[in-house]
Each structure stands twice: as structure tokens, then as C-alpha cells.
Sequence to fold (471 residues):
Amino acid sequence: MSGVLVVGGGLAGLSTAAFLAWHDVPVTLVERHTGALRHPRARAVNNRTMELYRGIGLEPAIRAHRSHAADPGALLLRVDTLAGKEIWRREAVAPAGPGSASPCGWASIDQDELEEVLQGRAEELGADIRFGTTLRTLDVRDDGVTALVEDGTGQYEITARYLVAADGHRSGIRRRLGIEPDGPGVLGDTFTFLFVADLHEALNGRTISVVHIEQPRPGTVLLPHDGDRQWVFSAPFEPDVDGPPEEFTEEYCADLVRAAIGVPDLDVRVVPQMADGTTILTYQLGGRVAPRFSDGPVFLVGDAAHQVPPTGAFGASTGVQDTHNLAWKLAMVLRGEAGPSLLDTYDTERRPVAWFTLEQALLQLRDRTGRDVLGNGAKPAEYDSVVFGYRYGPGEALPPEELRGQVGTRAPHLTVTRGGTGLSTVDLYGPRFVLVTTDGDAARPLEKEYPLDVYELGTDLDAPDYLAAHE
Ligand SMILES: Cc1cc2nc3c(=O)[nH]c(=O)nc-3n(C[C@H](O)[C@H](O)[C@H](O)COP(=O)(O)OP(=O)(O)OC[C@H]3O[C@@H](n4cnc5c(N)ncnc54)[C@H](O)[C@@H]3O)c2cc1C
Fold:
């Protein structure tokens, strides 16, 4: 029994598969849906996460896409109806380019397109990705797992040394393990669908990024999907009052759109957001963190481990960072380069980051909407400290300009030259450990003993500011 089974082919699962395959770990991923979900959801990838994707060669492919949320001049609007009274407007901030903190700027890509890019890269690196395959039962032992899965042709077993549960915020695997998340819990229920309509008249020349609409009910949101005639409609619902949204008829959905747009005779067509024809999906906004991120050979990543509200755009990026942290550790343990206790550090490092990120997302929710879930008077941290400055171990999150290679922090970004080519120090930290030293002769023998790359300053690396930039 070798390798890793990943359950769930969303952003976290596909990222896990890509990072593991990059480390040459045999990985199989099963996803119950037959294709990617056609819904933009997260539309911003923060620059720390872009650094991780850059490390596996994905930056150009991600930048080749651009979300319509970042179209030039796109607006964040609050309106009564789209054609009616405008209550508030702000220009959507275009993702910033690389600053002094990072070689990467933010990326603006719709999550459905990012998932396609990730799937392509994971497969190119050798991952076995099986869409249309559902986990049915799971036998967990100390030495591995046996999963019974089902696809269109029947049921079969997959055995693996480790299992990564990337099965989303309703994680069935987490439930099977009896892991009950902590935190404020459900913050609201929403349903979404895609529709096609000509909104040019109601838009009246405006390009939109996100529109918050009071009609037909406060909390309704309209997002552009294809930049022309396809849109995403999302609204809150109360399960006890509205019943299951999956049972809403197309005509009912079209009427909701007409009320939101403020054009009673608008021609509206609801279209599937999944390859199997599903039109309506629900999403529970929540604030939860699992009390442990692993159980024997099973590891929780992404929304299965923690769920944060969309305020702040932290959710997806935090999940991707989990998978990067876990992948190199699984690779070292599977190769026999580290003992299994290395895997315990996945929980001790990532769980505090999840709590910190949840707190920051809830503070942004409070500041934007007045809804104070925490009620503890906490102040939001500087945004870039949340993105870059969290620490593995004790200590406050730091702003990027104070990162100086302190233990447990992300190493600072500097531009250096290697073999005549300029690159970021962040690019040095690849699949192996890195030792930057002034004494190459003493350090080089270590390369034979450990998975380690040694760089001697002044010889292998032209980096005059390196020592000054580190503690
Ligand atoms: C409206 C909205 C806006 C958002 N905006 C942002 C943003 O701007 N920035 C940001 O960072 N985050 C954002 N998020 C959050 C982000 O979308 C989620 O954090 C992310 O999708 C979680 O990814 P995941 O892979 O962990 O889970 P999911 O995307 O939920 O994937 C889990 C997968 O597991 C599969 N699965 C479940 N059970 C099984 C089984 N038994 N067998 C096989 N497969 C199974 C499911 O089919 C699913 O595809 C937003 C979310 C929403 C709803």
C-alpha cells in the first residue's frame, strides 16, 4: 500500500493532488461530480498563495485568465434593483502587482477556471484524477485506508497509506471520524444559480464586479460570469420558511431575477452550473474550525478543516496553503526521509492559522455589515499581515516589512542572482530544504546526507543584502 488518496476535487483537493504529484508522490483523487462546477465563487488568489502556485510552475497559466470581477472600471454596487436606485458605489480594486513583499501580485481568476488549470497541471505531473467517482465507505486503520468508491460502472476499492479529506465544508469524512467543528457555526444559508439575460439596459453603461441588491430580499448578490450575458444570482434563504432551493422551479428563479433587476418582463433563462444538469446549489456561510486536522492516516484540508465567511477573500487561499504544508511533509514521510511525527506538525501549524484567519474574516464582516459575531472588541490586523505574516509557533502576525526570517515565518523576499539570472529568494525554496551560507565548503557535504540544496553567498548566489535582510 503506497501513496495518497484525495477525496474531493475542489480547489483544496486539486491543489493537494498537484503539490503531491510535484513531489513525485503517487496520488489518486476522486470527485463525485462529473465535471468542474461552473460557478466563479472565489475570484481572488492572494499573493502568498500565488507564490506557492508559482513554485509548481502555474503562475503563467493562472495569469492567462482574468475574472470579469476585475474588468477595467468594474464597480461594487449596492442598489435597490439593478435598474433602480443606487444606494452606494465603489470602484472594485484591481489586484495589485508584486510589491516589495513578494515576487507575485494577487491573481484575479474565477475559481471554476482555476480548478481547470489545477486539474491540468496535476495530471501533467502524474496525478490520477477521477471525476464522477464517489467515496461510499471508508475503512481507516493505523497503517492506511481502504476506500470503497463508485463510478458509472460500479464499485471498487482503493487502498492508500494516507487519505486527504478535501470534501468541503459538509465533509462526510470529518463526520465519520466524529470530528465536530468549533466556532460560531452557521452564519447563513444561500442558494445560487446561473442565468442568461440581456442586462445592458439595466446596467446603463456600468461594468459590475459585485452588486448587492435589496430586492427581492436583502442579501441578494449578482455577479458577472462570462462578461456579457451570463450571470450568477445568489440569495439567502431560510430552510424552514423557503423549503429546499433544489425544488425551486425555473419560473420561480426567473421571477427572482426579474425582481432583482427591476424589469418585470425581462427574458431570463436559467442554465446548468454542473455537467450533470444541476441548476441550483446551496452554500452554507459559516465560521468553523475542526478541533483536530488529522486522525491517524487521515488529514483534513480546505473547507473540511475550516470554513470562513467570504469577507476578506481568505477562504480558498487558506485551504491551498494547508495543502502545500501537508504535501511536502507527506512526501518526506513516504520517502522515508522523515519519521511520521513530522505529520503531527500539520495540525499544530495550520490550525492556529485557521483560527486567526477566521477571526480576521469575522472582523471584516463586522466592519462591512455591522454584524458582530465575535463581540470581543478585537481589532482587524493589517491585511498583508494576515496574508503573509502568520507564524508557525508563538508570536503575533507580522507585517511583511518586518519579516526577517524569524523562526516559523515565511522567509523574506529579496531579488538575488543565481547563475547570472535574477530571481526571488522565494523561488529558491523548492521541493528540498535550503541552506544559504557564507561557508559553502563546510555545508556542501550535508547535501549528500539530507534532501538539501546549499547556496554559498557570493559564489552560488549574488545577494549583497541577504544577511542584512535576515535576523
Ligand atoms: C460566494 C462565495 C465567494 C467566495 N469568495 C472567495 C474569495 O474571494 N476568496 C477566497 O479565498 N475564498 C472565497 N470563497 C470560499 C471558497 O470558495 C471555498 O473556501 C473553497 O471552494 C473551498 O474549497 P474546498 O476544495 O475545500 O471545498 P469544495 O470546493 O466544497 O470542494 C469539495 C469537493 O468534495 C467533493 N465531495 C464531497 N464528498 C465527496 C465524496 N463522498 N466523494 C467524492 N467527492 C466528494 C464535492 O463534490 C466537492 O467538489 C468563497 C465562497 C463563496 C461561496
User: Anything to note?
Assistant: The CA atoms of residues 13 and 166 lie 5 Å apart. The mean pLDDT is 93. The pocket of flavin-adenine dinucleotide is lined by residues 7-13, 30-33, 41-44, 111, 134-135, 166-168, 172, 283, 302-304, 310, 313-317, 319 (CB under 6 Å). The longest helix spans residues 344-369.
